[in-house]
Design brief:
Radius of gyration: 24 Å
Order of helices and strands: HHHHHEEEEHE
Number of strands: 5
Helix content: 55-70%
Number of domains: 2
Strand content: 5-15%
Number of helices: 6
Distance between the termini: 24 Å
C-alpha cells in the first residue's frame, strides 16, 4: 500500500468516526429538545401531546438508529479495507448492518411495550430474530472465518463437499466453484468448516475459469 493511499484511508476512517460522533450528538440534542418542547414549551400554550410522546420517541429511534448503524458499519468497512480486499470488507459491513438492525428492532419493541412487558416483547422479538437468522448468520460467520484464514483463494482447484472445481467467488454466505463441465456450484460456507478441503495442483495448461 502506497503512502498516499494509506493516508487517504486513514482520513476516510477519521471522517467516518467524526460522522458517527455527530449522529450521536444530534440524537441526544434532538431527543432533549423534543422532551423540552413536549413537557415545558407546549403546556404553556395549553397544548398537551403527552399521549404521542411514545410515537415521537420511536420515530426518533428509527431515524437516528438507521444512521448510527450505517455509520458504524461504514467505520468497520473502512478499517477492514485497509487490510483486506473489497470482497472481504463488504460482507463484514453487511454483517454489522444485520446485527445492528436486529438490535434496533428489539429496542423499539421494548419502547412500545414499556416496563416489564417491553422487556418481554423485546426479549421474545430478539429470540425470533435470532432463530430466523441463525442459519444466515452462521453462514456469514463461517464466510468471514474462511476469508480471514485464507483457507481458499480465487483460482484454486479444490474439492469441497464432494465437488471438484475452480474457486471463482468467496462470498459472505456461499463459496462458488466452477466444475470442468462449466457447472457452477454454490456451497454454503458453514458446511465447509465441518469438512475437509482438498487443494489439487493444477496441470500445465489447465483452463482457469476464475478469469
Amino acid at each position: 500500500m502506497s503512502e498516499s493511499n494509506d493516508k487517504f484511508q486513514r482520513m476516510t476512517i477519521a471522517n467516518r468516526i467524526t460522522k458517527f460522533i455527530i449522529w450521536i450528538a444530534l440524537f441526544i440534542i434532538v431527543s432533549a429538545l423534543m422532551q423540552w418542547i413536549v413537557n415545558i414549551l407546549l403546556p404553556k400554550f395549553n397544548i398537551d401531546i403527552q399521549n404521542y410522546i411514545l410515537y415521537i420517541n420511536v420515530t426518533l429511534t428509527l431515524i437516528f438508529g438507521y444512521f448510527l448503524i450505517s455509520s458504524f458499519a461504514n467505520i468497520m468497512y473502512a478499517f477492514m479495507k485497509r487490510k483486506y480486499a473489497e470482497d472481504v470488507a463488504k460482507p463484514i459491513r453487511n454483517v454489522f448492518m444485520i446485527i445492528g438492525f436486529g438490535a434496533l428492532l428489539t429496542v423499539i419493541a421494548g419502547e412500545v411495550g414499556g416496563g416489564l412487558a417491553g422487556v418481554s416483547v423485546g426479549g421474545f422479538l430478539g429470540i425470533v430474530i435470532g432463530y430466523a437468522t441463525q442459519q444466515t448468520l452462521g453462514q456469514a460467520v463461517a464466510g468471514l472465518f474462511i476469508m480471514f484464514s485464507r483457507a481458499l483463494k480465487h483460482g484454486e482447484l479444490v474439492t469441497l463437499t464432494g465437488d471438484t472445481g475452480i474457486v471463482t467467488d468467496i462470498g459472505i454466505l456461499f463459496t462458488e466453484i466452477v466444475k470442468d463441465d462449466n457447472t457452477k456450484v454454490l456451497i454454503p460456507n458453514n458446511s465447509l468448516l465441518g469438512n475437509k478441503i482438498y487443494k489439487i495442483p493444477k496441470k500445465d495448461g489447465q483452463n482457469n475459469k476464475s478469469t
